[in-house]
Amino acid sequence: MTCRFCQTELTDVFVDLFNSPASNSFLSAEQLNEPENFFPLKIYTCSKCFLVQVDEYKKSDTIFDSSYVYFSSYSTTWLQHAKKYVEKMIDRFGYNSGSQVVEIASNDGYLLQYFVEKKVPVLGIEPTANTAEVAKTKGVESVVDFFGVRLAKELSAKGTKADLLLGNNVLAHVPDIVDFTSGLKVLLNDKGVVTMEFPHLVQLMENNQFDTIYHEHFSYLSFTTVAEIFKAAGLEMFDVEEIPTHGGSLRIYAKHAEDGSKQIESSVAALLAKEEAKGIKNMSYYSGFQQAAMKVKTDFLDFLVQQKRAGSKVAAYGAAAKGNTLLNYCGVKADLVSYVVDANPHKQNKFLPGSHIPVVKEAHLKQDKPDYVIIFPWNIKDEVMAQLAYIRDWGGKFVIAIPGLKID
């Protein structure tokens, strides 16, 4: 296999999480007795451009189909983040009724709805038809398609050019990152702005967030590598922010390389220097991650086995993709974690891929009164712990597995 960006042969394994089903491929009761597809989850580091990337991957059109169950609007924390972003972009760049905002991977309109409220024209690009239909009910015009050069050219030919071209947590999801960034170049207006948000590889490594590795993610990104990928597409970074979402993310700002109307902020050189000082351009920086993941696995399994022997009830909250990575890497089934609660009705009454743990409504938690509730989406643990604070009334405790086992 060769690197998706620079075509260098990949030989250095970053981490091997073995075989796992696609993390959002939830099962119906009827499917539990049918064969289930598992795919390798081995991640490599490119020794030339330092792009961290998956080895074999499930085809994107079979992940992002009409049965896709991730809807962004079920997290109030994420909605608040989206609303603040919209306010910031309008304040900084002055978008108005004469502007065109385009979001790639617009999901259920969770973000663009706030531009609609401000009377700013929007277009969502979303490959999953069921989420796009929900977006349309919020006034978000949506194109159901995958983004790349082909679609960018089609939209441009129809007169669509983006003054703001954004994508939150999509850059890591694209199998062909070169085609994707080239498409950004095509669709962006002459003086337009690209913003992308993605989990920061540095945070993933330093906080042992191996559970964010799953088949929907093809790349794990540093600012250094992304800047080079964008540069190759004729785009230039002019600002970057470190933000707290998803355990530590970056928000990058890019423009056409030939656009001289925007000042290159000092944050760009500062973060490049910060990453280099950490060793991002040295292969030794990427070693040792396998051992860190193994420690989480053994500690988590020890806890579950101890509770099983003690006769304690263990449940979980959040049927998140990251939880499925953790469960499948650890080989956990429904005999150790009885069920997982999730607010998303599209996941309820289904079963987690691989582990076959049932997904239930929150009412079941109140009735069952488990001794422990594992929070899989640790990135919104404060929101979850506030929502489920009542479990302490019966002596229940919260459990977090990442970056290390913590019982609260």
TrEMBL record:
<dbReference type="InterPro" id="IPR013630">
    <property type="entry name" value="Methyltransf_Zn-bd_dom_put"/>
</dbReference>
<feature type="domain" description="Methyltransferase putative zinc binding">
    <location>
        <begin position="3"/>
        <end position="64"/>
    </location>
</feature>
<dbReference type="InterPro" id="IPR038576">
    <property type="entry name" value="Methyltransf_Zn-bd_dom_put_sf"/>
</dbReference>
<feature type="domain" description="C-methyltransferase">
    <location>
        <begin position="244"/>
        <end position="403"/>
    </location>
</feature>
<dbReference type="InterPro" id="IPR013691">
    <property type="entry name" value="MeTrfase_14"/>
</dbReference>
<protein>
    <submittedName>
        <fullName>Class I SAM-dependent methyltransferase</fullName>
    </submittedName>
</protein>
<keyword id="KW-0808">Transferase</keyword>
<keyword id="KW-0489">Methyltransferase</keyword>
<dbReference type="Pfam" id="PF08421">
    <property type="entry name" value="Methyltransf_13"/>
</dbReference>
<dbReference type="GO" id="GO:0008168">
    <property type="term" value="F:methyltransferase activity"/>
</dbReference>
<dbReference type="Pfam" id="PF13489">
    <property type="entry name" value="Methyltransf_23"/>
</dbReference>
<dbReference type="InterPro" id="IPR029063">
    <property type="entry name" value="SAM-dependent_MTases_sf"/>
</dbReference>
<dbReference type="GO" id="GO:0032259">
    <property type="term" value="P:methylation"/>
</dbReference>
<dbReference type="Pfam" id="PF08484">
    <property type="entry name" value="Methyltransf_14"/>
</dbReference>
